[in-house]
Structures are given as C-alpha cells and as structure tokens.
Specification:
Radius of gyration: 23 Å
Oligomer: single chain
Strand content: 5-15%
Largest sheet: 7 strands, mixed
Number of strands: 13
Order of helices and strands: HHHHEHHEHEHEHEHEEEHHHEEHEEEH
Strand order of the largest sheet: 2-8-7-6-5-3-4
Bound molecules: pyridoxal-5'-phosphate
C-alpha cells in the first residue's frame, strides 16, 4: 500500500473506532435523567414512563411477546450500533482481526468483569451459557466414582453434558429436586446438602430456575458446599442483567456462566464464563491453545475465527443497560411479574408454579391450569388470544412460562390475566 493512502486508511480506522465508542442513547439518557431521583420501586409502577422506553424496542405487534426468557430482542440503539460494527469489521476485515480484535475484546472483557465484580483475568466472552458451563463440566478432570450434584429442574443441555461425563469417565451424577414452594432457604440448602458425599467434587446450581423463575439462595448453597469441600458452578443464564448483583453476592462461587443475549440484550451468540483464579489451572480446555499458561483463563477461549462485531456490540448493550440502571430494570421486571401473578393466584384451577415470596422471583413465572395440558394451554393462548408463551411439562412443573420484558405493558398482562381466567372457567 502507498504510504499516504496507508496513513489515510489507518486514520479512517481510528476515526471509525472512536465513533464506535459513541452510542445513540441520547433519548433514553434524557428519559432517565428526568426520573433520577425517583426510587426504583416507585418508577417500576409508572406506566407512562415505561411506555416511552417501549419505543426503544422494535417489538412485534403481531402478537403479545411473553416468551422473552429464550432471548431478549436487542434494543434499537444497540441494534443500530451492531449493524455499524458488522459493516466496520467487514470493511477492514483481516486488518481489523489482526490489529484491533484482541484489544477490543479485552476492553469488552474488562467492562463485563466490572459489571460482574470480578477481575478481567477471571472472565472470558463465550457464545452462550451452554458453551460456558459445558467448558467447565467437560474440562473437569473426572475420575471413576467422582460425584456431581445437580437438580432435575436444571437446564437439559447441562444435565446431558454431565450424563456424557458419566459415560465417558465413570463419574456419578446425583440429581435432587428443588421444592416448588420452599418455606425457607434452609429447606433448599438441605436438599442439596443431603446429596453430597465424600466423593462429591462439583455441585451445579441455577441462580434462577428457567422453567419456574425461582431464584435460589446461591450464597447459602456455596457456603455449605465449600464447607464440605465441594466446588460450585452457578448457572446464571437468566440472572446477568436481570438481577442486580455481583459475584461477591454469590459467596465466592467457583464458576459462573451466563448468556448476554438474554437479559443484557446483546446480539445473539454472546455469553460469559467466570472462573475463580485458583480454579483455572484445574480445567482442561476443549480446544487446545499452547500460547497461554495453564492458569490463564484465555486457554479456555480458543474458539477460532468468530463474529467479532458481536463482541463489539456487547459494549453498546452494556451502555444501554447501565443507562436504565440495574436496580431500576430489576424493579420493573419484578413489578410486571407480580402484576399478573397477583391477579391470578388463588383463582380456581389456576396454579402458579413460582414461589410467592417477593425475593424468590423476578421477571419469569410459570402458570398452569388444572386439567389443561401445558402444550394445549400455550396453543390456546397463542391461537385464541395471540399471546406467545412456552409450555413446560416436566421436572414437577406443568404450565406455561411467562416472561415479560421492559417493553411489556400492563394492558398486555391484563390480556393474559383475562385469557387465563376465561380458560380456567
Ligand atoms: C437455566 C439455563 N441454563 C442454560 C441455558 C442455555 O442458554 P444458551 O442457549 O444461551 O446457551 C438456558 C437457556 O434458556 C437456561 O434457561
């Protein structure tokens, strides 16, 4: 390349990267500045305010979207930035990958680590929770007879990965069942503790059970397991950017994985894995990478060439999330769930499969109707009432999972309540 054109070329790249730092957030920054002194719980009930936030999302009008637990759509300002990043990376292609990618990725790791409250050296960006947690499960140095503890309400892919280790290494899985309506944290901790033996090495626990939305007392479970010499891996698929917490609140868990396309609203195919520093050396990577030391977490992150624009858009999703504020977001999501569950609890034939205590749930809840198969309930809700949910029929849970998001209105939830009551009668 000619030196002058090269200088121009580099100049245009740094200008482009500077532009990457900016985000069209002005509208929501302004909206939240107006309510800066309003308490999160009070703001949570202000429908007019949240109607204005709904405008930030290009949510479909074809049906009422109450299945936001799978993944949440990316807000418009973040989507705009994402498209920009795709174009930018595409324009400079290998030059971006060879000269900028590593630094940008590190900057994103740092921001995610700040959010989670851990050193960047203990966090990597993955594609999703599945990759994060399966990296740990398959990376363990299992010996025949070693044991792991998990719950039947855990996510199927992780349970399958443990089953695979049992077949491959002769380790043993002990599966507990979490009570749907626990009376206390002690009751839940006791369920897990009863499954621990002298051979237990790893305990997997959901921060939030995906089929019911139940939040588990992770700190208490971690403390108990550590007293018994057992490491703990937390499935935080639904909690990063839904609940307002840091890793310290989880009692020093050994591993934590989450998907950023769920509650952070980052593009599809983004996740995190946190591994406590002293646990890194003990894990075998899935893909070999001899360029990193055994105790360097990046050894677990060699996934080959991947869509770098997704990593860049994570920063934009963080900026959007932080403009809303973690506490305000959690309060609004919990408010929406309580809005509809409070109106159907106690109704004849309607069964809410999510604990009633406020601190035991947030956005997600599950509801069934006596005598109606979950699949039929989900179908009727969609076909007759244009409400999209997902049927859950297993692990002691029979109903549909209902997951509102920040763009959900109480009118939409009124429609759900009305539909459930009509079906139940
Ligand atoms: C509890 C739980 N763990 C793990 C996962 C897997 O997440 P992903 O498909 O993003 O890897 C999910 C997905 O819904 C989940 O609900």
């Amino acid at each position: 390349m000619h030196p002058i054109s090269k200088r121009r070329f580099l100049g245009s790249i740094s200008a482009g990267v500077a532009a990457l730092a900016a985000l069209p957030l002005a509208r929501i920054e302004h909206a939240f500045a107006q309510v800066a002194t309003v308490a999160a719980d009070e703001l949570a009930a202000d429908e007019t305010f949240w109607q204005s936030i709904r405008k930030q999302y290009g949510v479909t009008r074809d049906f009422i979207q109450l299945e936001n637990g799978y993944y949440s759509l990316t807000a418009e300002p973040v989507l705009e930035r994402y498209v920009h990043h795709v174009r930018e990376v595409n324009a400079t292609s290998s030059f971006y990958m060879r000269t900028k990618q590593a630094d940008d990725k590190l900057a994103v790791r740092r921001e995610l680590a700040r959010m989670l409250g851990c050193p960047a050296e203990e966090l990597i960006i993955t594609r999703n929770t599945t990759e994060s947690l399966d990296t740990v499960i398959s990376g363990f140095d299992w010996k025949p007879g070693d044991e792991a503890v998990m719950a039947e309400q855990d996510y199927g892919s992780m349970l399958d990965m443990f089953k695979l280790q049992a077949r491959r290494h002769g380790m043993v899985n002990r599966i507990v069942s979490v009570p749907l309506h626990p009376q206390s944290d002690d009751e839940i901790v006791a369920v897990y503790e009863a499954a621990i033996t002298s051979k237990t090495r790893l305990l997997m626990v959901c921060h939030m059970i995906n089929i019911t939305g139940q939040i588990l007392p992770v700190r208490r479970i971690v403390e108990m397991a550590h007293r018994r010499g057992v490491q703990v891996m937390v499935d935080g698929s639904h909690t990063f950017a839904q609940l307002d917490f840091t890793i310290a609140d989880l009692g020093g868990c050994d591993y934590y994985g989450s998907s950023l396309h769920k509650w952070l609203g980052a593009p599809l195919g983004s996740g995190i894995l946190h591994v406590r520093r002293d646990r890194i050396a003990g894990l075998w990577p899935l893909y070999a990478d001899a360029s990193f030391a055994d105790d360097d977490i990046r050894k677990l992150n060699h996934t080959g060439t991947h869509p770098a624009a997704t990593d860049l858009a994570i920063r934009d999703a963080i900026a959007f999330h932080e403009t809303i504020g973690a506490a305000r977001k959690m309060a609004r999501l919990r408010h929406l769930q309580r809005y509809w569950t409070d109106r159907v609890r106690g109704t004849k034939r309607i069964v809410v499969n999510t604990p009633e205590a406020v601190e035991r749930s947030c956005a997600i809840a599950n509801v069934g109707i006596d005598g109606v198969a979950p699949a039929d309930l989900a179908k009727t809700l969609l076909d007759k009432y244009r409400i999209f949910t997902v049927a859950i029929d297993g692990a002691g849970v029979h109903g549909v999972r209902v997951t509102p998001h920040l763009f959900t209105t109480t009118q939409e939830l009124d429609a759900l309540v009305g539909a459930l009551k009509r079906i139940a009668s």
